[in-house]
Amino acid sequence: MKSLVWVGTTPRVVVWEAELVKEVLSNKFGHFQKPPVNPLIKLLTMGISSLEGESWVRRRRLITPAFHLEKLKGMVPAFQTSCVELIKRWEGLIGGDGSCELDVWPELQNLTGDVISRTAFGSNYEEGKMIFQLQKEQVILVLEAARSVYVPGFRLAREGKGRSPSDMWEEGA
């Protein structure tokens, strides 16, 4: 299923079919362009999802071998260790009545961090906790930037003047 959507004067094609999405995302000719983003978001996100053109191709080539099936099969023991430790910890939380209340979202985030730490760095989540905490803070900054309205040059309107844009508006400048 495809549909055409206009965003202002820019046409956008929305693709829903899995095979077509795969074809678009693996296109090596550079016809797929990502929408423009707030420069602050661009500064905070440097991963493959934000790259385009030759930079995207180089990064994609670099990470693809890590996700081959045989490599993933070799990671199963690390996945299992992380899951078993989580289940044991959860079993320890069960009260005398045989139940407990648990917010699983942070638990699953920590499990993900633990699996990444074990498979990529040979350590566990606790040893790399600070790095994951910094990544969470970075995500918060990106989300705040995404929610804000970006007006090119708005920051410069204030520089050197000591006045806020609202002050300038009131003064008729």
From TrEMBL:
Protein localization: Membrane
Major site of localization recorded for this protein: membrane
Top-level taxon: Eukaryota
Pfam families (alphabetical): p450
Xref: InterPro entries: Cyt_P450, Cyt_P450_E_grp-II, Cyt_P450_sf, Cytochrome_P450_Monooxygen
CC annotations in GO: membrane
Molecular function GO terms recorded: heme binding; iron ion binding; monooxygenase activity; oxidoreductase activity, acting on paired donors, with incorporation or reduction of molecular oxygen
Cofactor: heme
Coiled-coil ranges from the UniProt annotation: none
UniProt keyword terms in alphabetical order: Heme, Iron, Membrane, Metal-binding, Monooxygenase, Oxidoreductase, Transmembrane, Transmembrane helix
BP term (GO), one: lipid metabolic process
Protein biosynthesis listed as a keyword: no
The family this protein is said to belong to: Belongs to the cytochrome P450 family.
The protein's name in its UniProt record: Secologanin synthase
Gene name linked to the record: CYP72A1
